[in-house]
Amino acid sequence: MKTECEIKVRYSEVDRMGIVYYSRYLEYFEIGRANWLEHFLCNYKEMEDVYKIGLPVIECGITYKKSAKYEDEVLLKTICNISELPKFITFNYELFKGRNLLVTGFSKHLFYCFESKKVIRLPAQLSQKLIFE
Amino acid sequence: MKTECEIKVRYSEVDRMGIVYYSRYLEYFEIGRANWLEHFLCNYKEMEDVYKIGLPVIECGITYKKSAKYEDEVLLKTICNISELPKFITFNYELFKGRNLLVTGFSKHLFYCFESKKVIRLPAQLSQKLIFE
Amino acid sequence: MKTECEIKVRYSEVDRMGIVYYSRYLEYFEIGRANWLEHFLCNYKEMEDVYKIGLPVIECGITYKKSAKYEDEVLLKTICNISELPKFITFNYELFKGRNLLVTGFSKHLFYCFESKKVIRLPAQLSQKLIFE
Amino acid sequence: MKTECEIKVRYSEVDRMGIVYYSRYLEYFEIGRANWLEHFLCNYKEMEDVYKIGLPVIECGITYKKSAKYEDEVLLKTICNISELPKFITFNYELFKGRNLLVTGFSKHLFYCFESKKVIRLPAQLSQKLIFE
Fold first, then answer.
1. CA distance C121 to C115
2. Regions of chain B where pLDDT drops below 70
3. Interchain proximity C63–B63, CB inside 8 Å
4. Quick one: three-class SS letters along C59-107?
5. What is the ipTM score, two decimals?
6. Out of A12, A27, A70, whose CB is closest to C45?
7. Residues in chain D closer than 8 A to B36 (CB atoms)
8. pTM (2 d.p.)
9. Is B30 on the interface with D (CB under 8 A)?
């Protein structure tokens, strides 16, 4: 259960050292995550607007091996660990430039209901989609 | 009807040329605008959450004279033109480093009601605050 | 002399009102500008690294007609006015969602040499590319 | 060896859920880190421009306990572990709103020389400052 997406580094994402600013990878990860969710579970906007469920992050981490630079075309692989469902969902990310692994990371999320304003378990109607994938 | 606030340039705001990235000044302007609103009209969060009014921007512009750099401590002056009330409100901004004028700009806003989802005139209970200032 | 590029609105670009934050359009414009430069003049990274020329912005403006929202797929058209060359170059931008024009804007740039640390005219070897296009 | 700094949450830092976007805390951490470096070691700009040394991050992590919201005034505590010097330096961060701990995190950095384009050990003239603090 893995998705891939291509990202081209923008000028606005590069810092004084000429490399992608260290927080920007979390924005890339979010693109990968939204992609994965759309493919395997539910469009994220629909999740927020129709199901009234958000996925706030409770933990994340990044390991930097090589720098991405302005105009680099990088490939983000997103792999999801669904073993902690329905309470948590964890995404793992790998960012490549060609064959070079630049950055790895993860983010762990819980499910939050905007209506009850409480942490919830992922509703069965959504989690079933994953099981039957 | 003018406010001033100090801003210190962050590393994350500086680009590959070592200067503040050109869109970041709009983030600074927003700080000045929130400041002005809090001082003369109403705290912006209160405006959104209590009055259910937002101030979407309909036009803005920036003129760049000199660059702000990493760690520069700059002074933002915000002057508001309230002559177009209650339909519009326009803010003018001047960003100084010491005596040097670095950047000028403006933003023009209308009033939007989150409940009726319509453009509105600024309610009298709010606009009166400005008149009696 | 016009280029087009597609942009998908990221979650990180959307604000508390659920719409693209007003400064983010300048980041989109920069993508359109880099695209245009690559197509008609010179890859921007090459311009900075090989020719040692940067294009600092001296003025820009945005007019907001409709809001772009999270996950919107928008089309950015970039048209360049080269009549002020070799001293200045001005880009005009139009952002569409389907047939709806959301935002228009412009940015005016001069040419800056990183080596002499001076404002320069665009070297003939580069400006000729435009004339013979 | 600890520093503290106050940060006020900007509108541009808040996402569609009304809370600080998850990558923004790394920008806050960088403010705390620059502060700590200035206080105990060397102004970061001076380090880049005079000593030609950068501190690229090799690893970082964030744990989210509670959300910071628009206009929250938060306090960032930065504590540095210098036991890995002169090869690495690790910063630990705690972000408070009043007595509530919102977010914790860390970032681990190495030293990079912009002139030799190599990873280096922190020069003695700089590391001595820390020992005699």
1. 14
2. 131-133
3. no
4. EEEEEECCCCECCCEEEEEEEEECCCCCCEEEEEEEEEECCEEEEEEEE
5. 0.94
6. A70
7. none
8. 0.95
9. yes
